[in-house]
Amino acid sequence: MFFSVANQAYSFLCCILGGMIIAFIFDVFRIRRKTIKVSDLFVYFEDFVYWIIVALVFFAVIYISNDGEFRGYLLIGNIIGIILYSLLLSRIIMTIFLFTIQFVYKIFCTVCFILLFPFKILFKLLQVPAKIIYNGLRVIFGKVRRLSKTKLSKFYIWKKRFKNIIKKI
After folding, report:
1. Of 108, 94, 109, 81, which Cα lies nearest the Cα of 33?
2. Nearest to residue 26, comparing CAs of 83, 102, 106?
3. pLDDT band at residue 134 under the 50/70/90 scheme
4. Residues 6+ apart with CB under 8 A from 68
5. CB-based contact 12:74 (threshold 8 Å)
6. Contact present, 29 and 37 (Cβ < 8 Å)
7. Do 101 and 31 meet the contact criterion of CB atoms below 8 Å apart?
8. What is the 3 state secondary structure string of 88-131?
9. Of 53, 35, 56, residue with least CA distance to 45
10. Which of 11, 13, 25, 90 has a beta carbon 3.0–4.6 Å from 65's, enabling a disulfide?
11. How many CB atoms sit inside 10 A of residue 144's CB?
């Protein structure tokens, strides 16, 4: 099939844009990894998902812009798009996203602190009577335990005596 130079230039520019989209998706995965630490197994799974997404984006761009015909310059266009994004936009995007995530996290922590503050005060107020009750119960149960040990020891002594008497009979 014959394509004009204008169509080829359009396809090439679409592939540059596709490469920039691929690099942006990579930055999204990098941001997620910087904010949430996970196990290596999950990282391997994420890498697999990333490469599936990259393949889908790459083939979608080729299908939309060039009717699915793969040409060498389309691959070069993707690589140029990735390099352009990495050099021009990656730091800006990473900085903005990380700042936004940290800002939202701080707001969330502040709201949680405000909502949990009455419960903290209530906990502090109930802590003193709870300690008094706990110490009182500990003393009472300590005495009961000591008494039960002495009663049980007396019971064991009587049990041995009774066995000895039965043996003699």
Report:
1. 94
2. 83
3. confident
4. 59, 62
5. yes
6. no
7. yes
8. HCHHHHHHHHHHHHHHHHHHHHHHHHHHHHHHHHHHHHHHHHHH
9. 53
10. 11
11. 10
Residue 84 one-letter amino acid? L
**Residues 6 or more apart from 101 whose CB is under 8 A from it?**
31, 35
Instruction: Show the tokens assigned to 75.
Output: 């691959």
pLDDT in tens, 29-42: 999 998 888 888 99
Helix (H, G, I), strand (E, B) or coil at 56: helix
Cα distance between residue 110 and residue 119, in whole Å = 15
DSSP summary character for residue 2: -
Residue 74: both structure tokens together = 């389309």
Amino acid at 24: F
- Tens of pLDDT, residue by residue over 21-30, are 999 999 999 9
> For residues 63-81, b (16+ Cβ closer than 10 Å) or e, as one string?
eebbeeeeeeebeebbebb
With tokens 């009587």, the residue in question is: 158
Structure tokens at 118: 């009455």
Q: 135 φ, ψ to 5°?
A: -65, -40
